[in-house]
Amino acid sequence: MTLHDAAQAGTAWLLGDRTARDSKRLSLNPLAHIDALGLAMIVFGPYGWSKKLPLDVTQFRRRPKLSLTFVYLVGPLMNLLLVFFFWWLYFFAPTWIGRGVETIAVEEWRVYLQYCVIVNLMMGMIHLLPLYPLDGWFVVRGLVSDRNRPWFERNEYYGLLLVLILMITPIGQWALAHIYPLAAQIVMNLFSL
User: Fold this and answer.
1) What pTM did the predictor assign?
2) Which parts form a coiled-coil structure per UniProt (predicted)?
3) What is the mean pLDDT of the chain?
């Protein structure tokens, strides 16, 4: 989550909005991004979240709506970059660390890298869902015409309600139980290349 949020804060800053930087969110320190309740949910349940990124659309230098859309798209793109980075490490790091290292240590490292790929792939997929407050909602909302924008603003809290229902009911557990194997299968196909 740290790189996801820091990438969004950095993009906002590059596009002219200093709000996230001024509130110390342009940081690789995980403590800058932790939300207490979101962290507790990670510890006690399969879901969690970070602090909402503070943004001020009026500070973007050009095309505020498009800039905001791009900021929210960068988070899932960061997760995708991390997928490829960990996938690359999976194949090439064992040759670097494999000399003189126990085979079991190399295998544990590779299992850890597979887990990193799966988690980042799932985070990227989930964040692209067009449900408020996920990044996908803001991407879609930024791409719709100004005429349809009020409908999105009126109905965004239904998305929040749906996300909450998915998080606390067996429906969400069922969905997670089906998304995780899909992500794992994609990853295993990547690793078999």
Assistant:
1) 0.82
2) none
3) 85
